[in-house]
Design goal:
Number of helices: 3
Radius of gyration: 16 Å
Number of domains: 1
Mean pLDDT: 84
Strand content: 15-25%
Distance between the termini: 19 Å
Largest sheet: 3 strands, mixed
Length: about 100
């Protein structure tokens, strides 16, 4: 539902990350000063990570193994986001990460 209003919200400078985009850097949102364009902060916006988004089903897989692979998929996604914000670490601005679990 969020994806449907994404283009309208962009006109209001509201960023929507409703699902995992193919390019992880689409989850990285630089916040800039309206007039000068100076970088003020960076937001790493992690959407709700659904099981199907971070783990492939394996036939015959037990519940415990399924949960272990889900946790590993979530961990991997956050690692990818951490890597995506690394270029901003030396810029002296706050880096805010949001996530839904």
């Amino acid at each position: 539902m969020l994806e449907a209003s994404r283009s309208i919200l962009q006109l209001l400078h509201v960023h929507v990350v409703a699902g995992i985009p193919e390019a992880r850097d689409e989850q990285i949102i630089p916040i800039r000063h309206r007039d000068s364009g100076a970088l003020l902060a960076v937001v790493a916006a992690v959407p709700y990570l659904r099981d199907r988004d971070v783990r492939q089903s394996v036939a015959g897989e037990g519940h415990e193994r399924s949960i272990t692979r889900l946790k590993a998929g979530i961990h991997q996604h956050y690692q990818e986001i951490a890597t995506a914000v690394e270029p901003y670490l030396d810029q002296g601005v706050p880096i805010l990460a949001t996530g839904h679990l």
